[in-house]
């Protein structure tokens, strides 16, 4: 007899599971706890820092494994199986990344990058929508460097091409661009699943996102889910079998997960 299906839900947080403006999830907290109680694993896969995700875990009241800083690090595989590692680092440190950037990017493009670490607290709060302790946690990064790009689209594309040659990348979210190593949410998902499949072969993956930097993660999963975002024209998203909702987060998260679980139970 085949072993029971193990369901892994990889989810973005801001705008996908958390409310886009308030960052709350009270409306679906009970549903999340219900899913976890059924043995379904929820794995935040987000641009957020380790400290921010640990705070989310605290607010949820559950110790979830997670992927932080746009695929830079995986934490908590040992929570799924004690034989798996507690932490996997997939990225170079941010100081190494920044030094490469400074050495290879022309000054005219460097000057278009406004680093959040160099802004005052007021501007940082306006961009992130966070204050005090939560703002500090968002800025406490080990592998990624958030910035605002004050240039044209062509200049941004030029910047992306230059850094790509040295193994760096730009990850564009809803609020900022992150300068990162050659990592992303999709690669981290694949690494996570590869390790987990050492002990459980019958695995189904669900991925939930709401923004452009989530699309590769969605394509990598068995059941891609998109929470409502008015930036998107659905017909222009090249993902087969995409599960969608007309509700924003957090209720939209519950909507797409319920649809995905129905599909999994049918398969």
Structure description:
The protein has 267 residues and is an alpha/beta fold. It has 2 domains: 6-89 and 184-266, HAD superfamily/HAD-like (Rossmann fold, 3-Layer(aba) Sandwich); 94-181, Threonyl-tRNA Synthetase, Chain A, domain 2 (2-Layer Sandwich), CATH 3.30.980.20. Helix content is 36%, strand content 19%. The chain contains 10 helices and 12 strands. The chain has helices spanning 29-37, 50-60, 94-104, 107-110, 121-128, 132-139, 153-164, 185-196, 215-220, 251-266; strands spanning 6-11, 41-44, 66-68, 73-75, 87-89, 113-115, 145-149, 168-172, 177-181, 203-209, 223-226, 243-244. It has a 5-stranded parallel β-sheet with strand order 2-1-10-11-12. The chain has a 4-stranded antiparallel β-sheet with strand order 6-7-9-8. The chain has a 3-stranded antiparallel β-sheet with strand order 3-4-5, with helices on one face. The radius of gyration is 18 Å and the shape is globular.
């Amino acid at each position: 007899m085949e072993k029971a299906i193990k369901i892994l839900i990889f989810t973005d947080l801001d705008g996908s599971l958390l409310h886009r403006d308030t960052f709350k999830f009270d409306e679906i907290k009970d549903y999340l706890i219900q899913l976890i109680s059924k043995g379904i694993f929820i794995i935040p896969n987000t641009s957020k820092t380790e400290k921010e995700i640990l705070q989310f875990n605290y607010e949820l009241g559950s110790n979830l494994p997670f992927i932080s800083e746009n695929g830079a690090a995986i934490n908590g595989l040992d929570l799924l199986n004690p034989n798996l590692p507690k932490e996997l680092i997939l990225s170079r440190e941010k100081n190494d990344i920044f030094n490469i950037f400074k050495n290879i990017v022309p000054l005219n493009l460097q000057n278009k990058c406004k680093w959040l670490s160099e802004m005052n607290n007021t501007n940082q709060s306006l961009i992130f929508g966070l204050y005090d302790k939560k703002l500090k946690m968002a800025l406490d990064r080990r592998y990624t460097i958030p910035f605002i790009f004050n240039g044209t689209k062509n200049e941004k594309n030029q910047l992306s091409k230059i850094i790509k040659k040295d193994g760096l990348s730009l990850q564009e979210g809803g609020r900022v661009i992150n300068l990162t190593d050659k990592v992303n949410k999709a690669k981290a998902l694949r690494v996570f699943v590869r390790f987990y499949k050492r002990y459980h072969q019958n695995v189904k993956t669900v991925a939930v996102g709401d923004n452009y930097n989530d699309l590769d993660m969605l394509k990598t999963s068995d059941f891609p889910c998109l929470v409502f975002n008015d930036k998107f024209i659905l017909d222009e998203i090249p993902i087969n079998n995409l599960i969608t909702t007309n509700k924003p987060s957090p209720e939209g998260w519950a909507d797409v997960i319920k649809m995905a679980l129905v599909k999994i139970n049918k398969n």
